[in-house]
Amino acid sequence: MGPPPRPHGHAHDASLTLAPLQTATASSSQPPSQARSVEAMVMSIPQINKVKVLAKISPPLATPSPTSPLQALRGSVVAVDGPDRESVIIMVKYLSDFLVRGNEHIVRVFDGPAVDARSGARSNDTTSFLDYLENIAAWHKISAEVVKYVTDVPSPSSPLPVSPKTVAAVVEKSTTPPRASSSSPKFTSPKTSIASPPSPPSSTASHPIPIAIIPDYQLSHTDSAASKIPITDAYAPVDHWQWMATLWRGIVGPDVTVVVKDAASADSKDDAGRTGGAGTGVEVRLADARAIIVRTGDTGVPDGALRRVGFEVGEWVRGIGERQRDGRRGS
Question: Which of 204, 211, 224 lies closest to 84, judged by CA?
Fold first, then answer.
């Protein structure tokens, strides 16, 4: 992956297309109307295209091959992103409970720095950018912990995790978008396990596969930063977003990204910019983008959508586990 795109000299990713917009001249701030226009343009880029670009910058762990370093396990990383914190939490809670059924998987939720979800909120450009860099630095540390979790066999002497019901009670306390500050309430500690079957067998091949679920991950933070940090140079909004995305380089990418968004949002378009189907529903794009798009309505995330996502994610991560075992047998 090359360096961040430069204005006027380097083309941005072809999948990130926008209608013409007057770019900002070099200055210390943007007029409120222009700031809102930039945010609207950034958020109008189809989310599926953003997921594809982030996957190039920050790919998931490679499936082990006969020549790759030996891994005890190869679990999966599932990101749940979206502008509405409550919808994200509902999806995380459902997946956490669904994926441990049958004792085939163990699940742990990793929470990181909060996303500033306040629409139109802007602060000093230097302060905002430094905050974003601090968030990225924090995610580098969490990324190392995620990689360790999905590639290590848990020790039999590990402390017993809390039950899904206990976690659900904790999660329900956070139903409003948190402010991006050091005092923001956390969804749960990165060191808190969500659910696990009792006493796993000692055989690695039959050990439950670890699943790391990360709410408000790369897509959420990149969208927020690109919308909130002013453009004070000649970068176009699309290049501004892609530059923010490149900072995720070196951080583990998700095997699956679940995007929960309003069906009426401005980015309800396909890769070619065509307006997608109207109404709520689930769009499965695992084959080409490792993504699932959930379009919600006024009533929130439908039960049917939760069940569909749970099934699709379960089948996908099961396939990753099978490929890992096949790779180990071929070594």
Answer: 224
Give ∠ CA 218-17-238 in degrees, rounded to 5.
55
Residue 148: how many CB atoms within 10 A of its CB? Answer: 11
pLDDT tens digits for range 206-227: 688 999 999 999 999 999 999 9
Rg (CA), the chain: 20
User: Are 15 and 49 a contacting pair, CB within 8 Å?
Assistant: yes
Verdict on whether the full-model pTM lies above 0.90: no
How far lies 199's CA from each of 107, 163, 191, 192, in Å? 15, 15, 19, 18
Task: Please give the pLDDT value at position 37.
Answer: 75
Q: Which token pair is 88?
A: 């994200």
Percentage of the residues of the chain whose pLDDT score is greater than 70: 59
Digit-coded pLDDT (tens) for 287-330 = 999 999 999 988 889 999 999 999 999 999 988 866 665 555 55
Task: Assess contact for 204 and 331: CB atoms under 8 A.
Answer: no
Q: Cα torsion for 227, 170, 296, 58, to the nearest 10°? A: 50
- Residue by residue, DSSP assigns 40-100 as HHHHHS-HHHHHHHHHHHSPPPPPP-TTSPP-S---EEEEEE-S-HHHHHHHHHHHHHHTT
Distance CA 328, CA 330 (A): 5
Please state whether beta strands 256-262 and 76-81 pair in parallel, antiparallel, or not at all (unpaired).
parallel
